[in-house]
Amino acid sequence: DTGVSQNPRHKITKRGQNVTFRCDPISEHNRLYWYRQTLGQGPEFLTYFQNEAQLEKSRLLSDRFSAERPKGSFSTLEIQRTEQGDSAMYLCASSPGQLYGYTFGSGTRLTVV
Amino acid sequence: DQQVKQNSPSLSVQEGRISILNCDYTNSMFDYFLWYKKYPAEGPTFLISISSIKDKNEDGRFTVFLNKSAKHLSLHIVPSQPGDSAVYFCAEYQGGSEKLVFGKGTKLTVNP
To answer: Which of A47, A87, B90, B95 is buried deepest, with most CB atoms within 10 A?
Structure first.
C-alpha cells in the first residue's frame, strides 16, 4: 500500500493523559501536513513540514501540542495533558510539493473522556 | 471569519439527476480551489480542482465552475449515483504556506 498511513485509527484516553499519533507519508513525498477535524467542521490546518523542517504552525497548535518529523520520514503528533476539547479526527497528508499529489490518510480519531 | 463557506449542510437528490454543490470564498489572493469527497471513517479524497485562470474544469461526471466576480464556485455531478453519497468539501489552496482552507462541507445523499 503506497498511501498515507496513520496509527492508531482510534484512541480513547482519559483527560490529562498524553497521547502520540504516527503518520507515515507516501515515500517520495517531502511535504507532510497535520490537520484536525471536529464534528460539523472541515479539516483545519495544524502544521506543515518540508523534509524534517517544521515550516509553519497554526495558532490552533497550543503549547500542549508538538509535532516532529525526524529524518524527514514519518511524523509524530503528541498532545500533552489532553482536554475534552482535543477530541477530534487528526488527519495527516503528504505531497511531493505539487498540489495534485496532496494525499490524506484515514486519520486517527481521538476521544478524551 | 470563515474564508471558505459552504452554506448548505446537506443535499438530497435522486439517482440520475444533477447534484450541485456550492461554495463561496472571501479571499481573492489565492487562485486555486479544490473539491474533496469524504466517506465516514476515511480521509478526504481529492476529486477535482480549478485554477483562477479558468472558469470551468471537467473530469468525467464532475464539473467545477468558478465565478471570480461573485467569489463563488460550484461542483456539478451528473448523473448522480448512490455511490456519490458522501460529504463534499470545498478547499482553497493557500500557496505560501501550502495549506488547504476547507469549508464545513455538504453532505450529499443520492437516493436510488
So the answer is: B90
Q: What are the contacts of A99-102 at 24+ separation with CB within 8 A?
A: A99/B32, A99/B34, A99/B49, A99/B93, A100/B46, A100/B49, A101/A26, A101/A29, A102/A33, A102/B34, A102/B46, A102/B100
The C-alpha cell of B14 is what? 435522486
Alpha-carbon gap, residue A50 to A69, rounded angstroms: 9
Residues of chain A contacting B101 with CB distance shorter than 8 Å: 45
Quick one: residue B98, left, alpha or beta (phi over 0 = left, psi -120 to 50 = alpha)?
left
Q: Residue B22 pairs with which residues in a beta bridge?
A: B74
Condensed to tens digits (0 to 9), the pLDDT of residues B30-86 reads 778 999 999 988 899 999 999 988 999 999 999 999 999 999 999 999 999 999 999
Q: Flag whether residue A106 sits within 8 Å of chain B, measured between CB atoms.
A: yes
C-alpha–C-alpha distance, residues B97 and B93, integer Å: 9
Rg (CA), chain A: 13
Q: Do B49 and A95 touch (CB under 8 A)?
A: no
**Chain B residues in contact with A91 (beta carbon < 8 A):** 43-44
A74 CB within 8 Å of a chain B CB: no
Task: Specify the amino acid at residue B92.
Answer: E
**Nearest-CA distance A33 → chain B (Å):** 8
CA B84 distance to own-chain centroid: 13
